[in-house]
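Deviations from the work plan: none for this task. Representative record:
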Amino acid sequence: MTSVLTRNNVSLRGNEHGPPLIFAHGFGCDQNMWRLVVPAFEDRYRIVLFDYVGAGKSDLDAYDGDRYGTLEGYARDVTEICEELDLSDAVFVGHSVSSMIGILAAAAAPGRIGALVLIGPSPRYIDDDGYVGGFHEEDIEKLLDSLDSNYFGWSREMAPLIMGNPDRPQLGAELTESFCRADPAIQRQFARVTFLSDNRRDLAEVEVPTLILQCSEDVIAPDSVGLYVHERISQSHFVKMRATGHCPNLSAPQETIDAISAFLAQL
Amino acid sequence: MILPPPSDERFYTALVDDDPHELYEDAPCAYLSTQADGTIAKVNRTFLRWTGYDSASLVGRVRFQDLLAPGDRILYETHFDPLLRMQGAVREVAVDVVVRSGGLLPVLVWSALRQDGTGEPAMIRTALFDATERRAYERELLAARKQAESAEAQATALARTLQESFLPPVLEKVPGLDIGGGYRPAGDGSEVGGDFYDVFPIGEGEWAVVLGDVCGKGAAAAALTALARYTVRAEALRTAQPGAVLERLHEALLRYRPSDFCTAVFATLEPTASGFRFAVASGGHPLPLRHRSDGQIETLGTTGRLLGIVEGAARRETTVALSPGDTVVLYTDGITEAPRDGELFGDERLRALVDETADEPAEVIADRIVAAALDFQQGHSRDDIAVLVIKVE
C-alpha cells in the first residue's frame, strides 16, 4: 500500500512550526484551486494541501467505488491525512462539497480538527419538502450527462500518463491542464455523491468554531442555503461576501484571505 | 500566397462585402462578451437569432451561466469558471443553453479571458457553435458505449462462471494424501482460459488426477475443456491405464474437434503398504515433478505426443512408487514459460521453489507457485496458470 501522503498527493508548505491549516478542494478540480489564497498564510501556518483520491494527482489505483460511494469515504481521506501527520486542532478550510466532508471528518476524529471554514457550503442540493437546495434530481442527471460529454482533457490514451512522468514533451502542454481532469467514471461517481447526498442532520453535530463564507449570486449554494447551515451550527459565524459565483478562492482571493484571517485571529 | 488577378470581381465582392461589423453580427457562430463575473456586455445577432432573446433583456442583466441548463450551471461553476481563471481559456465545452421558449440549444463553447494591465481578469470573450446534430450523434455513441460496457461486464461474468466449472469447487479429501490446487487465468480474467484440472475417485481407494491445457481462448476453449474433462472422467472409469485414457481423449478430439488439440497429464494413485503407486502418462504436457524428502527432484514419466494431432504415437505410462514425504507437482507451461524481458520463469526456478516450500501444506505450495509465476511477470499473466500439488502423508 502506498502511503497516505502519496495516495492523496499531500503537499506541505508554510511554517512547519505553525498551527496546521488544511485546504480541501471541492468537486471538479484539485488543490490548485487554492494557489491564490495559500501564500497569504504561509508565514504563520503549517499548510496542508491534498487531492482527494480520484482527483488531481492522487493515486487513481487507490480509488475504491464502495469507499468513495459516500462522503464519509472522502472524510476518511481527511482523517487519515490528519493521523499520518499527527495533526491536532487543525483549521480545516473546505470549498463547496469539502464543507460537508470537513464536518464529517471533524466528527469522526475529535481533536484533529479544531475549527472549520466552510466556503459555499450546502448540506443538500436537491429541493425537498419545504427545503430549497436549488436543484431537482433531473438537474443532477443533466450534470452527469454533461460530464459524460466533457472530458476536460481526459482521454483513455492519456490516462496512464497523468499519474506518471511521461517522457513525451509533446504532451506537456496538455498535461498542464490536468487540474480539472479526472477519470470520467470517478468524476461521475463523485458528482453523484456530492449532489445527491443529504447532510442536513450532520450540521447539528458540529462542535467546533465555524466560519461560513457565502458568495453573492451563487447558483450552486444560494444565500438561503448558507443561512440554513448558519442556523444549524451553533458556534458559526456567517460572512456574506461581495464575490459572486461559487469559487471566491479564484475570483476574489483577497476578500477570501481577509475573511479567513479575521476568523483565525479570533480563535 | 497566390493572389488572384485584380480583374476577378468575385474576389473583391467577397473582400468588400464582408465588413467586420457584419462579420461580428451575422457570423456562423454566436459571440458573447461578458464581464469577468459572466454578466453579458455585448452579444451578436446570431446568438439572438438562435435563442430568441432580445439584446435589451440580456445586456447588463444576465450572466452567461444563468442562461445554461441548471445541471450545466454546476458544470460552469465547478469546471468552466475555474479553468478559465486558471488557464485563461476554455475550449470545446458541451453545454445546453436555455432559449427563450424554454427549450434547450446544445452548443459547443470556447471562451478566452482578457486581463487588464495589472493582470486582473477584465472580460471574457465567448464563441458558441450550434452543436445540435453533433450532440445527438454523440448521445448515440455514448449509449452504444454504455451498452458495450454492460455487454462486456456480462461476458466477463459468464467467463468467470464457466471457468469456475472447469475446476473442482473443493478438492476431494483423499485419505493419505494432501492435495492443493492453484489457478489463475491469463490477463484480467475477462476471458475463459484453457487450463483445467480435476481430482476424482475411480475405484476402491483409487484416485485419478488430470491437469491439462487446451488450445485457444474463449467459448471454443470452453467447449474443448468440457469435452476433455468429461471424456477423461468417463474413460478413467472404464480403464485405469493412464496411457489408454489419454488415447481415448486423443481419439475423441480427432473425431469431434478435428482442428483442435490439447496437452494433458493423467495419473492414477493407488494406495500400497508403503505409500502410493503412481501411474502417469503425458500427452505433450510438461512432466510432473517429484520432490523426495531428501531434497532430490526428478520428472516422472515420458512425454507423449500432443493430443488431437493426427500422427499420434502411443502415450506410454510410467509407474513409480511414492513414499511418505514425497511431493508431486503437476503444472501447465503458464508457469515455466512466464516471460520477463526475454527470459522465462523456467524449470530451475520452479524446482527451487518446490524444494524451498516442500514442508508446507499442498495448498500453500500451490499458492506460492502461482504467486511466484505472477510476480515474475509483474502481476500480469500472459498465459493461464494451473498447478496441482499432491503430497504423500
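Chain B has a mean pLDDT of 90.
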